[in-house]
Every structure is written in structure tokens, then in C-alpha cells.
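Protein in question kept underneath.
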Amino acid sequence: MTELNPVLKRLAEKHGVKDEPMFLLGQTVGCRLSIAELEAELRLAEAEAKVAQIKRDLVLASQELDSTDDALAQIPPELLEDILAAVERRLEAA
């Protein structure tokens, strides 16, 4: 059997494990499961942060749209028609 370092040997004895390689395997599996759970929590937290940022961006875009709509409402309809006609002419020329 491979000799374990004294710290691992004490841990194995503390937990009443006679088969030291099995103890190491159990510790490894436990650590890997913990890491996987933490990584999953991290991905979830990152996703939640992204969702929160998207919601904030959506609110800002909505406010900007409302502001733009209000500004457009102040422009006389005849002027808007002239602007639209000028844009259409430029698009046709391009």
C-alpha cells in the first residue's frame, strides 16, 4: 500500500478508515462534487446577474423610447412628412 503523508494518515484514522486509498478516493470524490456544486452556483449567479443587467438595459431603452416618442410628438406632422420624403430620396439615390 502506498504510504500516505502524516496529515492524510491522521485524517484517515480520525474518520476510522482502515483502507487509506479508499479514504483518498472518497475525499477526491467529495472535493470534486463540492467543486461541481460551487461551479454550478457560480454559473447561476452569473446568469442571474446577466438577467438583472438585461432588465436594467430594457428599462433604460424603454425610457429612451418614451422620450423619443414625446419629442417626435412635438414635431408638426408636415415637417415629419418632409423629413421622411428626404430620407426616402437619399435611400433611392444610394
Remarks:
- The mean pLDDT is 86.
- Helices lie at 6-14, 20-73, 77-93.
